[in-house]
Specification:
Layout (H helix, E strand, L loop, with lengths): L3 H4 L2 H9 L3 H16 L4 E2 L7 H5 L7 E5 L24 H14 L10 H5 L2 E5 L4 E2 L11 H13 L6 E5 L1 H6 L9 E5 L16 H11 L9
Parallel strand pairs: 2-3, 2-5, 5-6
Antiparallel strand pairs: 1-4
């Protein structure tokens, strides 16, 4: 197992340590390391576990897009919620995200499945559970990641930047339940692959709504396409 100081960027690590989260993080990492040592294939690769924090510095977070846990198929998980490396087939959730994006903005549908460009603009692409056993969705739900990622979200919400929360599905809403989101812009819809009769994702208009609100706050819009 790599040292925690190598896995988490200094800005986020300092904030997490100040909040007392380091022991919980080390406990989760130790549990995951034990699984790997026993021959279990775990996604994403160890060095990508906290990729969302490397991709989006704490003081630059202006949008939080929460996922549940990493993709479970080979070559997909990259430590950014909903994102897969360029060239990998789109999972259904990402395909619907791009359908909605095209519906809102027109033009050609986005083909780059790597959402690192969103992360570099301040979109925190965070899964609530940061690891998963290959082929077994939700398999690491009991390892203790959720309190850690809730703390990550809480730390992000403490910054003074205008911030949008995109909460797609009941799980994402549950991550921020009870948190102080006063002054933030919270948008909720179904998960991108939820049945269309439940607060449908397609047609939600969240990408444009988020940008209109950011512009009203004097911030730059996010280049989604």
């Amino acid at each position: 197992m790599q040292p925690i100081d190598k896995l988490i960027p200094p800005d986020w690590l300092a904030a997490l340590e100040a909040s007392g989260a380091r022991p919980a993080i080390e406990k989760c990492l130790t549990a995951v390391d034990a699984l790997r040592a026993s021959g279990v294939e775990v996604y994403p690769r160890e060095e990508l576990t906290f990729n969302a924090l490397w991709a989006t510095p704490l003081e630059r977070v202006r949008c939080i897009l929460l996922g549940q846990d990493p993709y479970i198929n080979p070559g997909q998980a990259m430590g950014l919620s909903f994102s897969v490396p360029q060239g990998v087939a789109f999972p259904p959730s990402l395909r619907n995200i791009f359908i909605e994006l095209q519906r809102e903005y027109g033009g050609e549908r986005r083909t780059n499945s790597d959402l690192s460009d969103w992360a570099s603009q301040g979109v925190l692409l965070l899964n609530s559970i940061l690891t998963v056993t290959a082929g077994d969705s939700g398999s690491h739900a009991a390892l203790g990641w959720q309190p850690i990622t809730r703390q990550i979200v809480a730390l992000a919400l403490q910054t003074t930047r205008p911030q949008v929360l995109l909460l797609w599905g009941r799980f994402a809403k549950g991550v921020v339940e009870g948190m102080d989101t006063n002054g933030k812009f919270v948008l909720t819809a179904a998960h991108p692959v939820a049945p269309t009769n439940y607060n449908a994702f397609l047609g939600c208009g969240h990408f444009q709504l988020a940008n209109k609100w950011l512009v009203k706050q004097g911030a730059e819009p996010i280049r989604w396409s």
